[in-house]
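re: ur question from yesterday

yeah so i grabbed the chain u mentioned. its 132 aa long if i counted rite. heres the sequnce exactly as i have it in my notes:
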Amino acid sequence: MIARLAPDTVRSVPTQYQGIYVHGTQIDDPKSLVFLSGQIGVAPDGTTHEGFERQCEQAMMNVEALLENAGMDTSNILRVVYYVTDASFLPDLSKVRQARWNKGQAPSVTTLVVAGLAAPDLLVEIEVTAAC
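ran it thru and got these structure tokens back, copy pasting raw so excuse formatting
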């Protein structure tokens, strides 16, 4: 079972981030532990989507497909690292996360604004650790 860590000795999670962020996650004796490589906004046919939101949605679909292949879903996510190439994308990232992955089982999250990703047209990369 995955425990979500939110002790009273740490600032509470602001309302707008509840459901998509928790300070920490813990799992004792997992049956399966999965580390996903960073997923980008490239479709299975190799098409790179235009725009941040479409790339983010595709990267999330790629994560969901890999989790499904491992017998898991987004409720099994322990940790997510988001890499975005421009701080102006942060409100859109929050919006897409709220719409797609707000299932009440918030993971630990780190979001980094980076100078660039593996190709100049990539705007977001999502790295996930999951367990069951």
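noticed a couple things. The helical segments are 52-69, 90-101. also Strands lie at 2-5, 24-27, 33-40, 77-84, 108-113, 124-131.
anyway ttyl
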